[in-house]
Amino acid sequence: MYALGVFVMKVSSLTEIVLPSNYHTSGFLAFHQRDEMGISEIVQQNQIKKGIMWHDNPALLTITIEENRAKLQLDIDGDKSRYSHEALLDLVSHMLGLKQPVEKFETIYQDHPVIGELITRQKGLRIYQSATPFEALSWAIMGQQISLSAAISIRRRFIQAIGIQHSSELLCHPTYKQVIQCSEHDLRQCGFSVGKANALLSVSRLIDSGELELAIPEEEDAVNRLVDNLLAIKGIGMWTINYALLRGFNHLNGSLHGDVAVRRNLQYLLKQEDKVSAEQAETWLAHFSPWKALVGAHLWQQQSSSGY
């Protein structure tokens, strides 16, 4: 499905980012450790190695966290002319969730009668991000209405089938440019349903044509336009969009009211005998706009030992 080119140049850059003193390193690493086979990400102790595409070239991103510092290294196979120190810092700051103003959120809600204690106990919690919005949306499409283990298997087979390999032997998550070279049959062979295959192909073709842009929106109006554009694609609904916004766009105002863990933990906090319905959770979370997703993440994390 993808012909691996011959790369003759390699650039390695080393830099670091200072982290908040209460940064949840274990949660960040757990988010990237879902696939135990480690074909495109390897997490060991305090380090992650991840295969990514850097301006159409396979690259190995290494993030090592030590003493509240994230040390970054990028090894690019091929053309190094488009390497940018600022772009690397921006990418990793995004992945680490450092663009999220959680300190402001905590200041506002640390004394809240229902969630104040939870927020104080989990201070510093962030929503860790996929490397790109396209990766987050791809994962959300794969994960629709199936178990986590099944989604991980499909993702693994998808990455293996397209087969973009860095010289380290780690595979890189495909971009839309590789996906548009695939057929529905190719994706079906990876475990996609017909609907999911066509949804991912539609997204990739719309990006390629310029009709869809997966830029990270700064204003709520831009978020709403992106939501409308994605909803117009057959096979993509609000669950998929909300998850993609949560994990790829640093969007903290999506509602996680449909999540079972969020509702279960909200029931516990509200000291309610009856189960919390999705409708009740949605109404309750609405009071926390524009932080609904972050409140949901705190509820999600409350009984989780492996990140959310």
From TrEMBL:
UniProt xrefs under SUPFAM superfamilies: DNA-glycosylase
Domain of life: Bacteria
Keywords: DNA damage, DNA repair
DNA-3-methyladenine glycosylase AlkA N-terminal domain mapped to chain residues: 16-132
Catalyzed reaction equations: Hydrolysis of alkylated DNA, releasing 3-methyladenine, 3-methylguanine, 7-methylguanine and 7-methyladenine
HhH-GPD domain sequence ranges: 142-304
EC number: 3.2.2.21
One protein family per Pfam: HhH-GPD
Name of the molecule in the record: DNA-3-methyladenine glycosylase II
Organism of this sequence: Xenorhabdus hominickii
